[in-house]
Structure formats: C-alpha cells, structure tokens
Amino acid sequence: MVSRGEVWLATLDPTVGSEIRKTRPCLVVSPDDLNDHLRTVLVAPMTSGSTPARFRVAIAFQGTSGLVLPEQSRALDKRRLVKRLGRIDDGALAAVLEVLRSLFAE
What we know:
Helices cover 20% and strands 39% of the residues. The protein is an alpha+beta fold and 106 residues long. It has one domain: SH3 type barrels. Strands 1, 2, 3, 4, 5, 6 and 7 form a seven-stranded antiparallel β-sheet that branches. The protein is globular. The model has no long low-confidence stretch (mean pLDDT 95).
C-alpha cells in the first residue's frame, strides 16, 4: 500500500527535455482513497541539488537537506516505485500541498 506523505524511491526515466530524471526519492501527494483504487499515484520529485524557489519546499529527510519540487509533479504507475524510504512530517506535507494548491489556483 502507498500512502500520502510517504517517500518512495521511484524510477522516473525515460524523460523528455527538462523533466527531472533518474531514480530518485519522490513524495506521494495523491490522497489515500485514490492510492487504494488506482494503479497510479501522484508524486512530487525530491532533490538535494537544485535551486530554491518560492514554489519549492525545503525539507530535511533522513539527514539530507533538499527540496520537494511540486512543479515537477506527475502521475506514476506504481510499478515505478522501487522502495519505500519513509515518511515526511505533517508540517512539510502541508507545505507541499499548499504549494500544489497555489500552482493550480486561478
């Protein structure tokens, strides 16, 4: 089972152009009722080597500082999820969800 707020190592390749690539940690942002019924999940990739911006959320996960990149969110087939790495704290998850709301607001 996959739950909102969990971080999974996910295979993002193949990609095109400026899409974030490689196998990397991704934060599950889709609600659990979707995760329970679909073969896909919505994720926001994470990185430790990118430029901070107002639409990115700074996070410390398992002792590493980095960023969640909501602007690079995408749907992934669950078969791309390699390994569960853990869970972020509720405050960080709330911040990511707020950025996602602002990205899709008019």
